[in-house]
Amino acid sequence: MFKTDNPLEFLEGVNFASGSAGILTSTHQGLCIPLETQIDFYSLVFKALVEKLGIFQVQRFISSSIFYINIGSNDIPAYSYHPIGVSKYVRLLISTLEGELKGILKLGARKLVFMGTQPIGCWPGIRAINNRSGDCIREYNQISYMYSERAALLLKELQLEYADLSYSFFDSYRVFDQYINHPKTYGFDESKAACCGMGYLNAKIRCNPSAPYCSDRTKYVFWDMWHQSEAAANLLVRMAFDGLPPNVFPVNVRELSGLNAENAHVIDQ
C-alpha cells in the first residue's frame, strides 16, 4: 500500500485523512476511507518503522509527534439516515471515537490536537435545505455541540488512563459560531451564503468551473456549500495555535508542541 520503499520518509509526517470520512464506517461508505481504516494504516506505518529502527527509537519519536484529529463533521448530516435520537447518536459517535483513539494511544501517540466540530447546521449546503428561510438546522447544531462537548470530556478521561497524554482541544463550535453570528467583528460581510456555487445561497449546485463566485472571497465565511473560506480558516488556525481557554484548552497548539513527552509508554509487541 505504501508509495515509498523507504519507511524513514514517514518520519517527515504522514497524512491518513480521507475527504468525506466519518467516525462511523457507514458515513459515505464506499466513497472514502473511514477513521477505523485510517488507524489501521497508521498501525502499518508504525510496524514498518519498528522493523527499520527498532521499538524504542520509534516509541521515543512517536511520543513526541503531534497527531492532528479532525473528524465528526460528516457524521452529523448522516444522522438523517440514523434517526435514533440526538443523545443516542452522540453516544454512538463518542463510543466509536473512544475505541479509535485508544487504538493510536496503544501505538504510542501521546500528543493530540483535536478539532471540535463547527455549527454544521449553519453550513450553506445545510441552510439551503430550508429554501424559504435559510435558517440553520437546529438539530444538526445540537448534535455538533454535544459531540464537541463529549469529545473534550473524553480526552480528559483518557488522560486519566494515559498519564503522559497531552492534548489541545480546539472548540471550533464556539469560535466559528462567532464568525457566523458576528461576521463584521472578524472582517466578514457574508456568513450565510457561499462565495462560489449556484442557486439559493450559492449552495444548490456545488462550486465548479462554470459557477459564479464572489468578487472578494476574503469577505465570506464560506468558500462553497461545504467548506469555510481561506480567510476563515486562517483565523481558526491562528486561534488554535495561539488562543486561550475556553476557545482552546488545556493548552494551545504552540504550547503543546513545546511539551516533552515524559515517561514514554512501553508498547506491547
UniProtKB/TrEMBL annotation:
Hydrolase recorded as keyword: yes
Record key words, sorted: Hydrolase, Lipid degradation, Lipid metabolism
Annotated GO MF terms: hydrolase activity, acting on ester bonds
Family annotation (InterPro entries): GDSL, GDSL_Est/Lipase, SGNH_hydro_sf
Keyword ATP-binding belongs to the record: no
Database matches in Pfam families: Lipase_GDSL (PF00657)
GO-annotated biological processes: lipid catabolic process
Similarity-based family: Belongs to the 'GDSL' lipolytic enzyme family.
Official protein name in the record: GDSL esterase/lipase
Species whose genome carries this gene: Dioscorea zingiberensis
Higher taxonomy: Eukaryota, Viridiplantae, Streptophyta, Embryophyta, Tracheophyta
